[in-house]
Amino acid sequence: MPYPIRVAAALSWRLLAISGMLVVLGYIVITLRVVVIPVAVALLLTALLGPVVDWLTEHRVPRGLATLVVLVGGLALIGGLLVFVIRAFVSGLPDLQAQVVNSLNTVRVWLQRPPFGLPSINLQNPANSLSQWLQANRNAITSGALSTAFTVGQYLTGAALTLFTLIYFLYGGRSIWLFLVRGVPQSVRSRVDLAGCRAFASLGGFIRATVLVAVVDAIGIGIGLVVVGAPLVVPLAALTFLAAFIPVIGAVVSGVLAVLIVLVAKGLVPALIVLGVVVVVQQLEGNVLQPLLMGRAVELSGIAVVLAVAIGSVLAGIAGALLSVPLLAVLNAGIRALLSGRDEPDDGKTSGSAVPLADVPVDPETR
Known about the structure:
mainly alpha; 10 helices; globular
């Protein structure tokens, strides 16, 4: 057998074995997504809130009390933000609806005039149309309501699991990690521990940098919307903030939505102004903020980020798009640490907040 054929065969069966392992792991994760996604979200929140708990603990605050304070404060902040955004959206929705109707009427009249000369469209009474549609789709609405209730129940269960897991991660995450490290041979425990430290440091850097980038995006686009007098400024700015957690795609989608709403509500010139603001903000994010804030924390190329978001969205929708890049960053940092051949940190990257999850006393027997 020629040598190139033997090499190709050896590579082929190894690639098949790796691919099979990835398929099985992916199937398990997708099957258990009701559990995996809440735990992943709790880990992201731990990377964001863990340094605050560590700081309070270093200032002689009991760890249980520090966890309680950070948890209650974080949930109050997130809940207050959501309530504020929803109320602002609901209060501004009637004005936006009226502006949409006026814009559609203007477009319809414009299409009826030369050079288009389209025939007029007679619309039925909206109330009668809605009543007829409800009667014709009664069964579908009933089944959809039951499905929606089931989905809401899943979300509530996931939220409870996220909260419960977050409490354990903030209070005793380090001990949980060391318990997992005991499952590997003792000769490589220190290297695996180092890889975990590097991976968690990368995750924390990603989360903090993403929050700062999201704040800058929301403020920049919010200022542009205020300048042109656009409706729903606060909800659109909040949407921009949330969409920034999905790299590349989130900024594009939120920017397009803001431009379309301004186009419908205010016209072409204000929409072009908002489009210019969106382009400037995204250029600032892509050329300044992302390299400056994430360059050292997350060593990923642009094409890797785009592909990760695309694959994650295909496999798990919005949750996959949100979690794909953090997962890739964690794997990248962990694998780099494993391949470095060093058992101890030599550059300070694993100090401080880089310790996986919460920093609690280490049992010497686990080393």
